[in-house]
Here is the input.
Amino acid sequence: MFDIALIGAGRIGRIHAANVAAEQRLRLRYVVDPMAAAAREVADGAGADVATLDAALADPAVKGVIVASATDTHLDYASRAIAAGKGVFCEKPIDLDLARARSAAGALGGADVPLLLGFNRRFDPHFRALEQRLRGGSMGALETLHIISHDPAPPPIDYVRVSGGLFKDMAIHDFDMARWLLGEEPTQVYAAASCLVDPAIGGGGDVDTARIFLRTASGKLCVISNSRRSGYGYDQRIEAFCAAGLVRADNVRETTVEAWRAAGAAADPLQNFFLDRYAAAYRAEMAHFADMLAGAAAPGVGYADGIAALALAEAAGRSAAEGAVVTL
Amino acid sequence: MFDIALIGAGRIGRIHAANVAAEQRLRLRYVVDPMAAAAREVADGAGADVATLDAALADPAVKGVIVASATDTHLDYASRAIAAGKGVFCEKPIDLDLARARSAAGALGGADVPLLLGFNRRFDPHFRALEQRLRGGSMGALETLHIISHDPAPPPIDYVRVSGGLFKDMAIHDFDMARWLLGEEPTQVYAAASCLVDPAIGGGGDVDTARIFLRTASGKLCVISNSRRSGYGYDQRIEAFCAAGLVRADNVRETTVEAWRAAGAAADPLQNFFLDRYAAAYRAEMAHFADMLAGAAAPGVGYADGIAALALAEAAGRSAAEGAVVTL
Amino acid sequence: MFDIALIGAGRIGRIHAANVAAEQRLRLRYVVDPMAAAAREVADGAGADVATLDAALADPAVKGVIVASATDTHLDYASRAIAAGKGVFCEKPIDLDLARARSAAGALGGADVPLLLGFNRRFDPHFRALEQRLRGGSMGALETLHIISHDPAPPPIDYVRVSGGLFKDMAIHDFDMARWLLGEEPTQVYAAASCLVDPAIGGGGDVDTARIFLRTASGKLCVISNSRRSGYGYDQRIEAFCAAGLVRADNVRETTVEAWRAAGAAADPLQNFFLDRYAAAYRAEMAHFADMLAGAAAPGVGYADGIAALALAEAAGRSAAEGAVVTL
Amino acid sequence: MFDIALIGAGRIGRIHAANVAAEQRLRLRYVVDPMAAAAREVADGAGADVATLDAALADPAVKGVIVASATDTHLDYASRAIAAGKGVFCEKPIDLDLARARSAAGALGGADVPLLLGFNRRFDPHFRALEQRLRGGSMGALETLHIISHDPAPPPIDYVRVSGGLFKDMAIHDFDMARWLLGEEPTQVYAAASCLVDPAIGGGGDVDTARIFLRTASGKLCVISNSRRSGYGYDQRIEAFCAAGLVRADNVRETTVEAWRAAGAAADPLQNFFLDRYAAAYRAEMAHFADMLAGAAAPGVGYADGIAALALAEAAGRSAAEGAVVTL
Here is the structure.
């Protein structure tokens, strides 16, 4: 059993704490958070101690550190944990600034460093099943890819302002998904974006609606569809068009219940909240972290993946601003 | 091209007239109906003549006769057409009285008589595809069968009173479907019925809601579900449970359009009217009649099938009345 | 937090142990099982102690007892726990013998006794959503009900022999579901059953395929469909036909992935194992037990429900054996 | 009843001849085609005469002319029919050359000229139902639009060579659909295209796979997905993302039959052939032409629509060739 220190006792930190508790090979030992009450609450619920980061890193029994703090601390905390010889599970994004993220590559991106970057959707059972079908070969070569990722409703405008913008905050997941499924790096990016949902978002210089196009060197095409507001729940779909047909992953509904009436059949709503929709993904991600600490698996998604997704987000932002295709 | 005489210029007669017109091998020559205006209208629309039954049967150019008149005339008109050497396409039911229908078997049921009985659902492309899957063998032996057949809304009470009752008027289609798909005669019938939809139906001694159970000698089980009112359209589904899995035919919607909203996804309604739902079946049935007249096909469903379905309807009525299982 | 004693460290006992661990208001204190190694393993995993039943019942800190032992011990253990003043969560069936179960009603069925009977499907989120739609009233009165409950594949023949037979072992869940949803007691039962799946099951005097009809005093009709083998996974569906339309709960798939090819679209399989399909139901059931112990809820399903379902199972068995309708 | 002259007795001409026959208000009077045998066959099947174009246009009884000849004759024949005072139903595209098409606008595009351009998909009942939902207003403003239009398999390479290329031959339908649904003209076009299906298509300077972006002045975004080969049938879907939710039209299957097995559920294939998939659209289009001739309807899609779609196709081709966004 591996002792774990958790940095960050906010919403996503609590999810990870619960998944550490449910994972037999892991035990939560320390919770680190400047908000003492939050740290205490999470620690008490798990039989762990509140500690400073220095104290947690100094304990040789701690084998893994989960970085779930504010985005602008990710690089610093992950670097310190790596330096202390701990396995690291760092939430996405690695940073909002591409140059800064790249400059930390020496410390964080070494091949021998077990750093897992929290692109949780790679661990979603639906998308994973899709990926396995693609890899299985029976569908022929992947040619084009559609990713739909629409939020149910916009986050608070205060969050939007510090989020890094739609491309770095929201599309970043889809850039990672695209890279994972395409199996090849995009070489061209074109992004068209509008502010159609909430003028306040546009007022802050951001967009709320985008379509992003990626092309790889071999000519594979990918379209990413993003919106801050769907009006019908959390729309998370993928369609992979292959030489021998189509593989698709559809949305997940709250229940299978339908009511049929004269006006037609009405199905229950989509799973609406990302923590519900991706609950299984977060659990599987934690099991993968345990595998990593046990030496049974290399990180399924690492530092270089974070850099690559961030580079695509920057390119998309530039393309949308300039109205032109960006070549990487 | 075969000349055709149509007896009956009512709703179903007009469907057949249109399908004769669309079938290149057939030409409507005569329309027979005591309602002169109706006969005239159908004849004019098709370039045919109005005639008496005797005159139509006396024309040697007439090769086929379609009997689409009132139910109590089916046996008489079909017998006369057969006696005149015409091929016959007779609407269901063959009669409402089992003994009378059986007594006509000598005249009508001979193996060499090309009589097609209008169990149109056997020609529906969905049910036909299901049947071909069963016959194809890849699903293993059929073990149990569910047939759902619910009308959108009850017919006028005046129609119900002369209809012969739910078992002979409505379930008769399902008895034929069960016999066709089971590939084996039922030996036991149990029917449970209630009047839940409209007390006026119960007041006339009929029922509006039924579940019917059939068992064959080899132990295959079948459940038929009937209702005079679904509230959500014309519910016509079949599930065939086989040794290697399930084959099912689902309902047909008016369009594939769905609207997704916060409350869930709403699909367009079912095809609601039996003449729409089974339009392709009626066309295919007429093409089959042309095949018969050309000597290219034996009747896909004949007089003996009408007798057998009627016998099941009588047994079901008896079972429901007595609350007991009826052995055939 | 309530201390819990678990009797039975087998498959279902382990499920309950995990759900006790995940439920914040409960703590597993004792594990009781004559198989010492199994008891030890479950206890160690939960930080609990192995104990005898007497010792566990003697501890006043224990507020709840979970009876997950062999069926023929349910009545005895539940009675002893009740006598010791503990809240009881007893696995189904209450017993295989209706007379014996009824004779224990004095000890177990009192209105003030907090006994929860483990009909887990009432806690399934899909069926619960369906039930709420029915209760909500917008669908009008429930008229007829279809329950499909087919296992993926037959259990080992040794299990079948001691199971009490298809009606008491398998259909018992569906009888409870029917009573819950109909909101009215069935007064007539007819069961048709065959041995179509495995002759060894028939050789032991049991059946593997059944269709069961229920009718209530007001004329509501219910059909239950049971099979020991579907060939396509765990088929668990409900259709409730109401005055204003249909409410249905469909099967749950492993993932939403589909592959579209020239031959059509292929969806991923159904959730195949009952512990997966009903995992959420088992969790919700344990939360309900915690509510009961906290005095916040009366048992959602109790002793009298167990008796009623068992009575229907006996009646169905009699009907199938005699080939006749049984009136209750 | 209006007499009709049909120019062109090829595949699409025969479809129109059959729909004229089925439309009570129209009668096929002349068939014009340099291939005498083809003209004769179509004429005989409909009781019409073979004629030269001049003779057909000279007959004052002819009220409507259907231009279903080779693409490079569309402008000439349509102009001559208009000059002769006939109502015209002209197949798409109006021409392959934008400048030439525009130069004919004076003769063909006048507001008082009843010319119907054959963008048949506007008459498809599924897409029409979707359009009515959008116009109905209950979904809120349309914001973004996805159109998927993938052929089952590439046409013969000889056809591809004279087709005008993917954008003018295939995407032209989707440009018209986009304009119709967006209710606003696109002002920017970006097209990314590859040759992934068949190198012979690329060898001829064409592409077989494309993703096209459109943006309107108000910021609405549209993505069109085209492929010459799906591998799974004729994929024709539309998703319209609105302020209040999503309206979508899905593919049409050959039948509703599904086979459920251990590996999952397999549905019957998509309707694979465009003449099957759009059979109802072609019929509705002909009924609309009859409405036009009767003065009961203005053309639902006219010459200016053909020009606009062709301009988008040219812009898309330029964008793909230059790898840059094209502003209209």
In short: The CA atoms of residues 150 and 235 of chain A lie 5 Å apart. Chain A touches chain B through 15 residues (CB under 8 Å). Chain A has a mean pLDDT of 95. DSSP finds 14 helices and 15 strands in chain A.
